[in-house]
Amino acid sequence: MNISREQFLADRRTCLGGSDIGVIVGVCRWKTPYQLWEEKTGRRVDDADSLPMRFGTHAESFVASEYTRLTGRRVERFTPMLRHPTGPLGGHLDRLVIPEGKSRAAVRGRILTDRGLECKTVGAFAAGRDSEWGPDGSDQIPESYLLQCATYQALTQCAHWDLAALIGNAEVRVFPLRRDEDLEQGILEIAAKWWTDHVLADVPPDPVTEAEARQRWRAHQPGKTLEADPTTVALLKALATAKAKVKAAEAEEQGVKDQLMPRLADADSIVFQGANLASYRANKDSIRIDWPGLGQRLIEDLDDDTRAAWLADFTKNVPGPRVLRLAKTLEN
Q1: Are 315 and 206 members of one domain?
Q2: What pTM value is reported for the model?
Q3: Domain count of the chain?
Q4: 10-33 per-position pLDDT tens digit
């Protein structure tokens, strides 16, 4: 990417990008609508500079080169920020695919191709047996990535979009996607409403999960009491019942372990009639630094004023998490 990282992040705050659509509709596991609203309204720093994001950006060139090797299609970077003419959509593309027999996919910001490329890196576990990733050559990809590619098609008017994914650092799969204008129209409508209702109006989206509620209301208001409605009462009772079932299941699990573990002794694996049933091994050793002990050693020889200054510099107040404690009348 030939633009600065600072400019890239600044551009992201002025519109909804392809990766934001999955967040809005609730199919993204990495970010909630509330966190996205915080980013777009300047209340939260965009996490596009996190280590996983930086690795993904770094790996783009490798994935793109593998795509060319596998398909024979040449690609080129396209750095201009694209914006939709009527909706709050925008974005930077990974690559454009150069048409066969041509030398360029775009000239002076004008796109001359009908095919784009999105590059992804996927962990081996994420692409396991029950994953949303299909075989090479299929169009089976996670919904959030489908929405991302459809957004780029809406921005470029490209009829085709390929997604190349590096799976577990072991293989690259190519997923060809055809344009779906009905999907694009739906994305535009959702994006326009969300941008108007939440970013322009500066109103956070309503939380629909525990994680979102905790993000929005990180602290309680001392002395504030909520008069529960019938639905809230029913949910509190259902939670108490669920917690009791979990507690009983955990007790049952521990009872089974108490009988089982002595029978395993120091065995490495457990088999029955040649079939493997379980393994019982230590995980790989890890190295941990005793930071409190190291800190104590470092400050032992300091004078009182320096020691006090260091302690002040490295001491911070960490707010305690909110804990939902059910009344005993519900737990019985």
Answers
A1: no
A2: 0.77
A3: 2
A4: 778 889 999 999 999 999 988 999
